[in-house]
Amino acid sequence: MSTSQTTPEVLWAQRSSTTTPEKNVIFVTISVPDVPNSSMKLDLKSDSITFTGHSDTKKTTYHIALELYGEIDVEKSTTHHSARDVELVLVKKELKQEYWPRLLKDSKKVHFLKTDFDKWVDEDEQNVVLDEPDYGMGGMGGMGGMGGMGGDGGIDFSKFGGGDDEMSNIMAGLKGKGDIPGGDLPDFEAEDEDEEMPELEPEDVETIKASSSSKETEPASTKPAPKITEVS
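Predicted structure:
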């Protein structure tokens, strides 16, 4: 049974440097899912890249040949193959601040070649990028996780003790040692409770009753009723 031949998608980005070869690189990612090592061949030369690989699950053979715009240092370049793609970090042979104007020698646009925006940085901004990608070179690994911080960057206070009970014990110890100004901790709960009303004296009770009784017996109005005159 015959299988088809497919031109894989290729993503690329770059960096440049006049002093450090490991930062003067081209990133190339060839999308070739489900191609095992035993079924692929990668030919890397100073001015070209050729890849051929077969996928049984996709029932296709991937093939691509790229003639590069400039020369690369094959010995210093690296490759990484995964179940999804082949990633290349190509070290440019010429240390130069200017970017390559394009990846391929031919200026004609091709449908399979796209910019890798996840890795792309403009030439005049590459020195201020905080998160540099892992170039795949020895001794240039990422910083990894920052110890002592919570999963979302906040401080995990649970690492400082055993919870509320232990904090209460610590505060009680400080109180006993006089490390708290004044020697005593304020009782905030007592302040929040409603204060009890003082009991009324007997004479105050009689006064309140007399006042209420006088209001109940007071006539509604002291004004005389208007006279009504009959009209004949």
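Summary: Residues 137-163 have pLDDT under 50 and may be disordered.
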